[in-house]
Amino acid sequence: MTDRTTPLDLTARLAESDPQLAELIDAEGRRQFEKIRLIPSENYVSRAVLDATGTLLTNKYSEGYAHKRYYEGQQFIDEVEELAISRAKSLFGVDHANVQPYSGSPANLAIYLAFMQPGDTFLSLELAHGGHLTHGSPVSATGTWFRPVHYGVGHETGRIDMDQVRDIAQKERPKLIFCGGTAIPRLIDFPAFSAIAREVGALLVADIAHIAGLVAGGVHPTPVGHAEVISTTTHKTLRGPRGAMLMTTEEHAKAIDKAVFPGLQGGPHNHTTAAIAVALKEAATEEFRLYASQIVANAKALAEALAERGFDLVSGGTDNHLILIDLTNKDVAGKPAAKALDRAGIELNFNTVPFDPRKPWSPSGIRIGTPAVTTRGMAPEHMPRIAAWMDEAVEAGKKDDGDSLDRIAAEIREFTSAFPIPGWPTP
Ligand SMILES: *Cc1c(COP(=O)(O)O)cnc(C)c1O
User: Which residues lie closer than 8 Å to 138 by C-beta, 6 or more apart?
Assistant: First the structure.
């Protein structure tokens, strides 16, 4: 049984009508509180974002766009959506924003629908080098309905090779070029991508799902002015609810809006739109700019501490929130290491590394990041300690030493209890 000790408890009322479900949510809340969350695509949203998400805005249908809806009763929903849009436009400095995509994957699908015909060629980062499934993986609709060609990172540098991008673009003449991905520890050179796209007559799409909060906080260069279309999730570094946005120049606004609705979706999730508006307001504050720079400071401190312990970092380090680790020199694969680390209280994911000789379901690496621990108030001074626990847990995992993993988990529970998360009562 989960203790219900404080009136802060979000699920107190739910427990009266559905105790079974309330129990599961509480168990997940405790898990999120007790672990060190290093998954770079995850975060902890504010109490205000949680509040907006759990409102009766979920009751309303509003297919269409503000003042052009297919259902009556939109007096307030129109204002909610317009508020989210105007905040997105002012935060990122874009001409146009669509806040309706249900998540990052459908947002990207809308881009293909807007600009591509089945079979058309596009260029993107290879999945195994840090791309995303929706950038043309063979197991994604985007890889079967269209014709993807890929660039990668250099073998020695671990960084995107812009000469290779240009060579492939000139040979293949893609309609779209995607930049951005899920496992890129370095800055993305938007002006260089834009120059190549212009040379070959392609549209440039920047998928900033991972780094939107860093862009908003001014610690990563912006794609605005370089990419015609910008796609982002709202739930990663941007620290909003699960959702997505598409931002474009005026020229492409109509095509994007039509692709989202009626091209792909029905009614927008208005409670999510409201929570996106809240997150965008928070992201426009000085406090958020400090948060963004602290994410990067933490990632650099963690990378340095891991490198000192002999961890092999792809590209040698990080410029952003993310660190990709090749475990080959530690004589362990990514999956067993990730499982051992999770038991020890450190939550992360196994990941392919560039030129991985192993298979995607049991690759050579792990991927970590600092957005979530930074939200909790952890600072560079805490990172050597986290690196030491990681080192210990990886070694304990190799020896199947469950007792050591459980001891580390207990130490981490003690440690994380000093760093509150919104929505979970601090003991
Ligand atoms: C997370 C992510 C997506 C997809 O987002 P979902 O909300 O999981 O569908 C798309 N592109 C990139 C680069 C991502 O990191």
Answer: 144
